[in-house]
TrEMBL record:
Protein name: DNA-directed RNA polymerase III subunit RPC3
InterPro entries in the cross-refs: POLR3C_WHD, RNA_pol_III_RPC82-rel_HTH, RNA_pol_III_Rpc82_C, RPC3, WH-like_DNA-bd_sf
KW Phosphoprotein (keyword) present: no
Ranges of residues in domain DNA-directed RNA polymerase III subunit RPC3 winged-helix: 379-445
Organism the protein comes from: Corchorus olitorius
Amino acid sequence: MVTQYGIKYAVHLITTHFGDLVAKVCECLLRRGPLTLQALVKFTELSSSQVKNSLLVLIQHNCVQAFLPEPGDHGDADKLNTQYIVLFDNIIHRWRFPKFLNIVSEKLDEQCVKLLEGLLQHGRLTLKQMSDRDRARLDQKEGEDVILDATRANLIKLLNARFVERCPAAEPVLAKPTEEESSARKRGPKSAKILEENETLEHRVMDAAAPSEALRFLLVTQTESAADGGLDESNTSSLKAGVKRKSDALESETESGAADEQVLLWRANFEEFMRRLRHEACIVNLRARLDDGAVIVLRAMLEATRSAEKKVKTEHSVPLSLNSIYEEVIKSVEGRNITFDRVRASLVQLSCPPFVKAINESYSIDFKKIIELAQSDEVESVVLKRYGSDACKMFRLLSNTGRFVETDKIADSTLIEKKETPMVLYKLWKDDYLHMEKLQLTGTRQSHFLLWKVKKNTIREHVLDEMFHAALNLNLRLAYEVEQEKELLSLSQDNRDKRLRKVKLLSQSQMKLDDAIMIFHDF
């Protein structure tokens, strides 16, 4: 969902990082969809060179993808022009870079963190550029080859963990939509057609641009392949699985000259970071409902199935047998104290409600159920803080019921005064938290009733838009406070400490708000 305040928030982030000129081009793409260079010049009223340079910045930082429409879409191939589509999610991810770095710091060493930090800062880099940065940062006198080898070793660690990937193709040719995608667009309601088409188009563009899975996380040096026709293990990032497939892909790539490590561009793999953050959010949101053993089992299942997930928003994990789950549980220090029967009991606990589904003696995680529960908790928390406990009771009742309920029945079910109930419901309806319909009954005595319902999809979009609005305001306030830091030297020690505490509190609030945004938008 890309809401109105979501667009404003994205434009603010681009303005903060790259200035007004680049932000103007980005906003045009956000509001109008994919455009050619000529169309961008027309709509932004900027010069061709200004638009071109802005696009180069956005592409460098993975915020825009160029593509060529499929020739059949235009009839005249001579009129085929490059189009540019904005990647909204990648823009929002820019505020999550500290979270990404924290994930790497927990898994790998400091040198890997620094390497990823350079990629996040510059968007895309070759191995040579990474090596040059390391040499300048470390200020070491070792030879260039020594630094290059060390940088290559760190890059391989990041590739093996899937924290870094090859950059997509510069201008992929877009294939025609599949019959399934075309029929889905026809079935969609009119109000959602534009958004649905843009999402489908972005998905098709990124699929066309993505490198093959065999090459996506593969680093190959310029060294010749082994004499026996296989690949030297020191020349690749990972050869544990799919060796022949990677070998065939490598031979094809080498023939085209694309395997030169001086040319290949690398970037942070946002999908992997979001997948890990999603898994952690699942654990955090279920921790209060489960005992420690069930949490350990859930974490083990997430770890075992992560590599098999093809997309971040997958609804179910791949199934695992009980034996496979136990093997993964005892790999962790805290899991070694858990018995086989305890794992079985934890899976029973996870099945009620069905956070884990059991099918034919195999178990899979129901991500959709967990995320929907987290979303419901977040919305109820907002309603409680803003409207009070009575409003929260009514909202929870309607949310769980999932259908229209008459005013008096709501009052009876929640044990709230019938005089107070319509006023509270009206407040929620006025602020778009409830849907209301009037039911008119005719007969000997004409009467009407008010019916109330929670439309979950609508309320999630509304809450997300409010969150983007709050994030925008919070960012603006934090930027103002940071700008005032130059005045700290003229303040007393007490006032200086108060201002620093305020900045720290704003930063913490910003991160917590972003956690909530991810639950509604990214997960």
